[in-house]
């Protein structure tokens, strides 16, 4: 059962601050970051955090789309002028694609030491990769994206670009279903949030 929030609007101010500052951090690290690359890095942060501790990094709701696991609410925020993330970033209209500008300094107030270590790890290991390389990583045969797309009969349609979006949600608890301790931690986290 997936108990993730449906939209960014249901997140607390502290959670929105953490999402905003994560995006600020990643934009500061990679000035020319595209929307696709940014969305992949956010997913990888949640995936790696759950695998490591059973606690999501951002607790976003991800859908099975052609280019991703995609947090639809963040996709919408990054596709036009940000509203919820307006205190953190602005979208610049550039000829070479989506370009973002941070409008605040990075604040680590909402981050634990473990969060900051993971943010730096994901940034150094995955931030240097292109958006295409990150898509390949999140679409590998062992990924939740691949498994869900295959099980629901949409993998070929997504890969052949007959469809670009689905309403299929990625249940991140699948990452730790064989680890009772982490699964329990994850369930408790979702009940509290």
Secondary structure elements and pairings:
Blueprint (H helix, E strand, L loop, with lengths): L12 H17 L5 H19 L8 E4 L2 E4 H8 L9 E6 L2 E6 L10 H14 L4 H8 L5 H8 L3 H5 L20 H13 L1
Antiparallel strand pairs: 1-2, 3-4
Helix pairs in contact: 2-4, 2-5
Protein name: Antitoxin SocA-like Panacea domain-containing protein
InterPro entries: SocA_Panacea
Organism: Putridiphycobacter roseus
Description of the molecule:
This is Antitoxin SocA-like Panacea domain-containing protein. Residues 38-145 form the Antitoxin SocA-like Panacea domain. InterPro entries: SocA_Panacea. The protein is mostly helical. The protein has one domain. The chain has helices at residues 13-29, 35-53, 72-79, 113-126, 131-138, 144-151, 155-159, 180-192, and strands at residues 62-65, 68-71, 89-94, 97-102. It has a two-stranded antiparallel sheet. A two-stranded antiparallel ribbon has the order 3-4. A hairpin with a 2-residue loop joins β1 and β2 (68-71). The longest helix is centred in the N-terminal third of the chain and has 19 residues, at 35-53. The two termini are 15 Å apart. Residues 1-6 have low confidence and may be disordered.
């Amino acid at each position: 059962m997936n108990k993730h929030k449906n939209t960014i609007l249901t997140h607390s101010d502290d959670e929105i601050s953490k999402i905003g500052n994560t995006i600020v951090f990643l934009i500061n690290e990679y000035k020319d970051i595209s929307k696709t690359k940014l969305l992949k890095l956010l997913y990888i942060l949640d995936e790696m955090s759950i695998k490591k501790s059973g606690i999501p990094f951002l607790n976003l709701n991800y859908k099975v789309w052609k280019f991703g696991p995609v947090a639809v609410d963040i996709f919408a925020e990054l596709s036009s002028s940000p509203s919820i993330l307006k205190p953190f970033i602005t979208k610049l209209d550039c000829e070479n694609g989506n370009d973002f500008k941070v409008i605040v300094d990075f604040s680590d107030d909402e981050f634990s030491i473990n969060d900051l270590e993971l943010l730096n790890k994901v940034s150094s290991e995955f931030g240097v990769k292109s958006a295409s390389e990150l898509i390949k990583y999140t679409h590998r045969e062992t990924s939740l994206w691949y498994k869900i797309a295959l099980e629901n009969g949409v993998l070929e349609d997504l890969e052949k670009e007959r469809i670009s979006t689905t309403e299929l949600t990625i249940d991140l608890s699948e990452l730790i279903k064989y680890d009772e301790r982490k699964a329990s931690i994850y369930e408790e986290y979702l009940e509290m949030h």
